[in-house]
Amino acid sequence: MKCHLRNLLSLVLFMVFIFSPNAEAFAKKLIPMGESIGIQLQLPFVYVAHDVLLPNGHWLKKGDVITEVNGSSVTSVEKIKDQISSNELTLSVKQKAQEKRELSLTSEQANNILPFLKDETDGIGTLTFIDPESKQYGALGHQIIDGVLNEPPDFTDGSIFLASIEQIKKSSPGNPGYKISVIDHNNIRLGNVKSNDLYGIFGSWESDLKESLRKPIDIMNEEEIELGKAELYTAIEGSEVEAFEIDITKIEDNFLQFVVTDKELLEKTGGILQGMSGSPIIQKGQFVGAVTHMFVEQPSKGAAITVTEMLKKKPK
């Protein structure tokens, strides 16, 4: 059976984590969420998002980091723009273990490469829970890896925003589906990002906590989790969160495996989608864990981390 869970905009949260050495001290109750959120991490450097062939025959390669322009260090695309008034620019470029190299560009050529430069990492995920006492949140259930850099990026600041699901690309065996979402960056940010950790992003919730259909619920101890029926909270249309039926099929250490049994979810999504990571799992009215992965060859099957294990991964 499916139940509709409507939220006020100010309550669009994700995964609350307590910044304490153990889960007991962090929280006894959490608000289960399930909304889709946009995530933005501001990086302390500028990198090249795509290979670019320059008129002189040299290449700017995907993943190159631009460290200096005309001998001055740069940490943002805006600082590069400020230098383009010069007739010629000299870029100092470096990629991982390679030696730094220098490239000379005219101001026109520099303007042409600006669309290929980035100083932030963006993504979509699912809000897992909020701690109503500490106003801390957590999200995703896994670490953010930048697709160009192929590593978790260093970042100086981070924000989360409400995302609305515009369309679904269904999963099929061997072909993971995904959510197509729109992020409103003009919207008030919901919270900051303090940590990009093994089991998700964590930070402070900055919006008011108003009345919601979802109330704080108890955290289920790992030894109490049972095989069988449970619910998965997630959004697959707009910003509305719904509860879908699943069966927990395996419990091992701090991890779970489950199968989607909800006919409507299977019909609309084919099972688990990219972007569902962080979706809360609830059993017998208690908070069990969060989705972390799907099985590519069997998209109706997913994996999850227990919420008690997630709470141990405090921000450093």
* Mean residue pLDDT: 85
Structural class, by secondary structure, is mainly beta
Q: How many structural units, i.e. domains?
A: 2
Which CATH class of the largest domain is shown? Mainly Beta
The CATH topology of the largest domain is Thrombin, subunit H
Give the name of the CATH architecture of the largest domain.
Beta Barrel
Question: In percent, how much strand structure appears in the residues?
Answer: over 45%
Rg value: 22 Å
Number of H/I helices? 5
How far apart the termini lie comes to: 41 Å
Major beta-sheet overview: 15 strands, mixed
What is the N-to-C succession of helices and strands? EHEEEEEEHEEHEEEEEEEEEEEHEEEEH
Q: Percent helix among the residues? A: under 10%
Quaternary organisation: single chain
Number-wise, the strands total 24
Indicate the overall shape: elongated
Low-confidence stretches: 1-25
Keywords: Signal
Protein name: Peptidase
Pfam families: Peptidase_S55 (PF05580)
Signal peptide: 1-25
